[in-house]
Amino acid sequence: MSWMTNRLVIRLRSVGRILKINRLLDYFFTSRNYEDRFKSILLEACREGDCVWDIGANIGYYSNLFSEKVGPNGCVYAFEPSPTNREKFITHHIMADNVVLMAYALGDRQANVMLRQGADFIGATSSIVDSKTTKDGQVISVKMIRGDTLIFSEEVRSPNVIKIDVEGYELEVLRGFGQTLLINRELRLLGIEVHFGILTSRGIPKVPAVIESMLNETGFECCWCDASHLVARRG
Predict the structure, then answer these.
(1) C-alpha–C-alpha distance, residues 131 and 180, integer Å
(2) How far apart are CA 202 and CA 1, in angstroms?
(3) Is 111 in contact with 80 (CB distance < 8 Å)?
(4) Smallest Cα–Cα separation from 81: which of 22, 140, 134?
(5) Number of domains the chain is built from
(6) SS3 readout for 26-64
(7) Residue 185, domain CATH
(8) Considering only CA atoms, which of 186, 193, 172, 192 is closest in space to residue 219?
(9) How many CA atoms lie within 13 A of 175 on its CB side?
(10) Residue-range definition of the domain harbouring residue 212
C-alpha cells in the first residue's frame, strides 16, 4: 500500500475537503499542470495499432488524442453512457474512423442502472447513483455491462491501454475486468482518476487501497503521478 492510500492520509484529505483547502494544497505539492502529466503518461503508453479504452469519455477530449496516437490500424472505444454527453461528443469532434462511441456504462455486473447527468457544461460530473439519490438532478436509466463480457463475446478488441474516469465508480469498473487483468498480457497500462471525495461520500473511503491491492495482485505496478491519478503498469 502506498502512502497515498494510507488511512491517515485519507482522513487528512477528508478534513482538507471540509476546510476547502485541498485544491490549494494540490497547487503547492503537485503543480498547476498535474493533469498534463497524467495525459503524457497515457499517450506515451499508446503505440501504433493499439486498442485503447476511454472509460468515461465525456465529450471526447482524450478519445481524440488516443485516436491520433494509435493511427488508422488502431482503435479507440469511447465509453460514455450519458446521451447528453454523447451528443456533445459528436457535435464537438470529428469522429475518426478508428473511434467507436459506446453507450454502455462499465461496471461489475450487467444491469440497468441510474445515471445522474452532471450539471457542469460538459457533463464531466455525470455519475452512476443509487436509486435513493435520484431526486438530485436529472437521472436516467442506462445499461451497465462488464468489460470482460464485451471482450469475451468478441464484440470489441481487448485493450492495450485503459483510461478510467468514472466519478467514484472506479473499483466497480475494475472488477468488471477481473479475467482480463489476469490473462491479457497485452494490457500494459491503466490510468485511473481516483475520486477520493466521492468514495468517502459513498461510505467506502478505503477503495483506493483496494484498487492498489487488486492491481498489484494481477501483476501491475502502481504509482501516483499526482494526488488524484493512479497509473498501473504491467510489471
Answers:
(1) 30
(2) 21
(3) no
(4) 140
(5) 1
(6) HHHHCCCCHHHHHHHHHHHHCCCCCEEEEECCCCCHHHH
(7) 3.40.50.150
(8) 186
(9) 11
(10) 3-234
Please classify residue 181 by burial: count the beta carbons closer than 10 Å to its beta carbon, then call 0-12 exposed, 13-18 middle and 19+ buried.
buried
Which tens digit of pLDDT belongs to each residue from 109-146?
A: 999 999 999 988 888 999 999 765 555 667 999 999 99
DSSP letters, the chain, are --GGG-HHHHHHHHHHHHHT-HHHHHHHHS-TTHHHHHHHHHHHH--TT-EEEEES-TTSHHHHHHHHHH-TTSEEEEE---HHHHHHHHHHS---TTEEEE-PEE-SS-EEEEEEPPSSTT-TT-EEE-GGGTTSS-EEEEEEE-HHHHHHTTSSPPPSEEEE--SS-HHHHHHTTHHHHHH-TT--EEEEE--HHHHHHTT-TTHHHHHHHHHHHTTEEEEESSSSEEEEEE-
Dihedral sign from CA coordinates of 164, 170, 171, 173? negative
What confidence tens digit (pLDDT) does each residue in 143-163 have?
999 999 999 999 999 999 999
- 52 Cβ contact list (under 8 Å, min separation 6): 46, 66, 69, 70, 74, 75, 76, 77, 159, 160, 161, 162, 163
Residue 95: which region, alpha, beta or left (left: phi > 0; alpha: psi -120 to 50)?
Answer: beta
Return the amino acid letter for 66: F
